[in-house]
Amino acid sequence: MQTKLLTRRFDTPNSRSIATYLADGGYAGLKKALTGMQPAEVIEEVKKSSLRGRGGAGFPTGMKWGFVPVNSPKPKYVVCNADESEPGTCKDRELMEKDPHQLIEGLLIAAYALLSKQVFIYIRGEYWYLIAILEQAIAEAREHGFIGKNICGTSFECEIVVHPGAGAYICGEETALLNSLEGYRGHPRIKPPFPAVAGLYGCPTVVNNVETFCAVPHIIVHGGDWYRSLGTEKSGGTKIFSVSGHVNRPGNYEVRMGYPLKQLIEEDCGGIRGGRKLKAVIPGGSSVPIMTAEEVEQATLDYEGMAKAGSLLGSGGVIVMDETTDIFMTTYNLIRFYNHESCGWCTPCREGTDWLLKLFKKIARGEGTTADLDTIRRLCPNIEGRSHCPLGDAAVWPITSAMKKFPEDFLKHVKPATAVPSAA
Amino acid sequence: MPTFADVLTPEFDRQADAIIARYPQKRSAILPLLHLVQNACNYVPEDGMRFIAKKLGLNMNDVYETLTFYSMLFTEPIGTYHIQLCRTISCYLCGAPQIREHLEKRLGIRPGQKTPDGRFRLSEVECIGACSAAPAMQINFDFHEHLTPEKVDAILDALP
Ligand SMILES: NC(=O)C1=CN([C@@H]2O[C@H](COP(=O)(O)OP(=O)(O)OC[C@H]3O[C@@H](n4cnc5c(N)ncnc54)[C@H](O)[C@@H]3O)[C@@H](O)[C@H]2O)C=CC1
Ligand SMILES: Cc1cc2nc3c(=O)[nH]c(=O)nc-3n(C[C@H](O)[C@H](O)[C@H](O)COP(=O)(O)O)c2cc1C
Ligand code: SF4
Ligand code: FES
């Protein structure tokens, strides 16, 4: 069963208008923070909530905000990562489409907590129609005195600018995003320094995912303890999972952290299409290891639970595959994706994903041997951990996990390598 | 298709200035300005790039270098309708390959090509954030989801 907090207004008529948002108690969190709390108290409340970044890495949000130097002489920036391009993930789109004011309120509370006057929403160019929706909401918020100078009658001032990307998966990586927002090619930077210390234009910058910011008003209104209690001790609150693939009712589902993955698939999503059997699940967007049906049985949807079950929670993109799925072909599909999206900056990822793709193509043509599978196995550790940014790792995990967990799907595409001497 | 000279009205110039004014540093305006030019001209012509360079105090190389990184920006006419079919995993699982075949047959072109009359360009793209409504495509900026061959026909037939 869903626990609707961030998605609770999705079915409200005119949910994106400020009138309905205010009628549903909207902007109470912002008013409470501005008129009754010190910025440090806001950060403290977010720490208490044990909210962890919903972009995929799950870093504690309050701790990240706490890393921003309080007395920086430079301006500080808040950046919303609305680049959402992880295959299988489509939750941020619905959050912005159906309830833009929830995001705006979260952004303003964050800006207050960090004493930032400037917020950017970096949104992928493909979500062009959402730019108009966000700008309309920003205009409404301004009319009501929530954006601009003297917000809620206090001395706090803040502006929000929506910035379009132009097609590049890597620009979701926060430092690539910052380079892109500065007007350069979207190549990632080396971390540390983390953006919290040196981000946009070299200034302290907090980058968070859309869903992370959307949780903030609820934490301020109801308190961090209340929010945490919705989930598990270490993974507080609720999380939205985008379910896609072979289920009867695909869609975005908001559940308490710690919810059983099997129940999400079987009950909420109505089970597998055509009454077929489950074969595999990629639970956290394409970058995380694939799970077998057996691993799904006991898995719970929280950071610790997913790690225990042999994968990662990631961005919450649950990709479900039935028994007819050929895991070699889905893995081929993903390596093609990563090869296409490699930004080309570093050699292991640029060249490595090229080689991997060539081998997968060869095998798909029916010309592969078991020696090619060995070559793939040898290539992967030369990319993983050796690339400039995590995209290189993300390209490899789906392959190594699929080859280990579904070896027969790979073997059936290749011939024995008897006559072919394997390379050293 | 309008040339950049047609597009460059005082109003366009004012829009460009308003975009630049949003940023603490001018160069940040480069992507929104490239979109502005492309949406008006169907692609980014050379004089459009020159205009942006001049506005931002950059040289042509800077603009060209940034532009070529991004898959949504084009330096040649795109075509009236840019069909961008998602080929990534969720869409793949839900029948994107059949939709591609159908589009190829109907339009007589392969991904990456344009119809001779310049009306359609077919592209295969990576995940567009419609995974729960797969298979999906965009025509220009519009999303079309839960595609079937029949639905694709109806969508294309309805285009002006
Ligand atoms: N939502 C999506 O569309 C996608 C999400 N991802 C996810 O992205 C994840 C990887 O993201 P990364 O940003 O590389 O992870 P990361 O672990 O480097 O960072 C996570 C966040 O915590 C901050 N952080 C970490 N340590 C810090 C410190 N010591 N001081 C200050 N701040 C600190 C970072 O700045 C960042 O904002 C993957 O786990 C993957 O699931 C990947 C692709 C697409
Ligand atoms: C290749 C790559 C792509 C990423 N894409 C996104 C993305 O589209 N959206 C997002 O929120 N985070 C994305 N991330 C994670 C961000 O770098 C960063 O961790 C996140 O925006 C921080 O926000 P959070 O703490 O709220 O999760 C990506 C990371 C990598 C390595
Ligand atoms: S790992 Fe890939 S995406 Fe990351 S910097 Fe290197 S080439 Fe670019
Ligand atoms: S995989 Fe096609 S829209 Fe995400």
TrEMBL record, chain A:
Pfam families: Complex1_51K, NADH_4Fe-4S, SLBB_2. Gene3D superfamilies: 3.10.20.600, 6.10.250.1450, NADH-ubiquinone oxidoreductase 51kDa subunit, NADH-ubiquinone oxidoreductase 51kDa subunit, iron-sulphur binding domain. One of its GO terms (molecular function) is 4 iron, 4 sulfur cluster binding. Keywords: 4Fe-4S, Flavoprotein, FMN, Iron, Iron-sulfur, Metal-binding, NAD, Oxidoreductase, Quinone, Translocase. GO terms for biological process: cellular respiration. Its EC number is 7.1.1.-. It catalyses: a quinone + NADH + 5 H(+)(in) = a quinol + NAD(+) + 4 H(+)(out). Residues 328-373 form the NADH-ubiquinone oxidoreductase 51kDa subunit iron-sulphur binding domain. Its cofactor is [4Fe-4S] cluster; FMN. Belongs to the complex I 51 kDa subunit family. NDH-1 shuttles electrons from NADH, via FMN and iron-sulfur (Fe-S) centers, to quinones in the respiratory chain. This is NADH-quinone oxidoreductase subunit F. It comes from Chloracidobacterium thermophilum (strain B).
TrEMBL record, chain B:
Keywords: 2Fe-2S, Iron, Iron-sulfur, Metal-binding, Oxidoreductase. Its cofactor is [2Fe-2S] cluster. Pfam families: 2Fe-2S_thioredx (PF01257). The keyword Iron applies. InterPro entries: NuoE-like (IPR002023), NuoE_dom (IPR042128), NuoE_N (IPR041921), Thioredoxin-like_sf (IPR036249). [2Fe-2S] cluster binds at residues 86, 91, 127, 131. One of its GO terms (molecular function) is metal ion binding. Its EC number is 1.6.5.3. It comes from the Bacteria. Binds 1 [2Fe-2S] cluster. Belongs to the complex I 24 kDa subunit family. NCBIfam families: nuoE_fam, PRK07539.1-2. This is NADH dehydrogenase subunit E. It comes from Chloracidobacterium thermophilum (strain B).
